[in-house]
Automatic annotation (TrEMBL):
Family assignment from sequence similarity: Belongs to the R-transferase family. Bpt subfamily.
Record keyword Transcription present: no
InterPro entries the record matches: Acyl_CoA_acyltransferase, Asp_Glu_LeuTrfase, N-end_Aminoacyl_Trfase, N-end_Aminoacyl_Trfase_C, N-end_Aminoacyl_Trfase_N
Catalytic activity: N-terminal L-glutamyl-[protein] + L-leucyl-tRNA(Leu) = N-terminal L-leucyl-L-glutamyl-[protein] + tRNA(Leu) + H(+); N-terminal L-aspartyl-[protein] + L-leucyl-tRNA(Leu) = N-terminal L-leucyl-L-aspartyl-[protein] + tRNA(Leu) + H(+)
UniProt protein name: Aspartate/glutamate leucyltransferase
The gene coding this protein: bpt
Enzyme class: transferase
Protein EC: 2.3.2.29
Cytoplasm as UniProt keyword: yes
Pfam families the record matches: ATE_C (PF04377), ATE_N (PF04376)
GO molecular function: arginyl-tRNA--protein transferase activity
Keywords: Acyltransferase, Cytoplasm, Transferase
Subcellular localization(s) per the UniProt record: Cytoplasm
Function in brief: Functions in the N-end rule pathway of protein degradation where it conjugates Leu from its aminoacyl-tRNA to the N-termini of proteins containing an N-terminal aspartate or glutamate.
Length: 245
């Protein structure tokens, strides 16, 4: 989905910094976030430009970390044509071959919310997204923009997972994935499978990258991103190969 509308120059945009707050990823650290002025709608052209500079989307807001004295959050993306799944990823693809996919607009759906609430209560009760609420879900994962999409994963009609993602001019941006935390489904590794599915979707659409958000080497919850290689990282204004262990 390429937009023919003229892009608004980044220099014409207005941004705001939050006050320092507790970091969600590294204990004992403070974080500051740079936001695009919420009065400036995250339209396609603006979003395309800012994504190349490491900005992410949460609801209507485009943001990126702007922490004094800390650069732990690294923007990473996967070059689609260079990616070759490893043995475990190929196994996961076969294991989940019985799932059906459905693409939906990013609008509120009670079935999606019920799964999201279950996921947050069981998997993230110690996080800043607990307790879940309808308002929290709507402001985080719904957006009335053509580029914002939800991808359902179903097994014989049962909803197992939902992956929120955006289609940019230069790739797909993975926003958030939530899934059924039933222990019987652990072998499916639905979070990893969702990323593999986005890679396939990007390849079919002729898009060069899948954006995986931020990677922090010290954060255990982000370790899975290292399994997708090769990764590229944003170094200032330039993307280059990220060398991971």
């Amino acid at each position: 989905m390429s937009s023919n509308a003229p892009r608004q120059p980044v220099k014409d945009l207005h941004f705001f910094l939050t006050v320092p707050h507790a970091c969600s990823y590294l204990a004992g650290r403070e974080a500051t976030t740079l936001f695009l002025d919420p009065q400036q709608s995250p339209g396609q052209g603006v979003y395309d430009s800012l994504a190349l500079l490491g900005f992410r989307r949460s609801g209507r807001h485009l943001y990126r970390p702007h922490c004094e004295g800390c650069s732990a959050c690294i923007s990473v993306r996967l070059p689609v044509e260079e990616f070759t799944p490893n043995r475990n990823q190929r196994r996961l693809t076969r294991r989940n071959s019985d799932l059906t996919l459905h693409l939906r607009p990013a609008i509120f759906d009670p079935e999606h919310y019920a799964l999201y609430a279950k996921y947050i209560r069981i998997r993230h009760a110690d996080g800043d997204m607990y307790p879940p609420s309808h308002e929290q879900y709507r402001t985080f994962l719904t957006l009335d923009q053509q580029y914002a999409r939800l991808m359902e994963f179903r097994l014989h009609g049962r909803l197992l997972a939902v992956a929120a993602f955006d289609q940019l001019e230069h790739g797909l941006s993975a926003i958030y994935t939530f899934f059924d935390p039933d222990p019987e489904l652990e072998r499916r590794s639905l979070g990893t499978f969702a990323v593999l599915t986005l890679v396939g979707q990007a390849r079919r659409r002729g898009l060069p990258h899948v954006y995986l958000g931020y990677w922090i080497s010290e954060c255990r919850k982000m370790a899975y991103k290292q399994d997708f290689r090769p990764l590229e990282m944003l170094d200032g204004r330039h993307w280059r190969r990220l060398i991971t262990p």
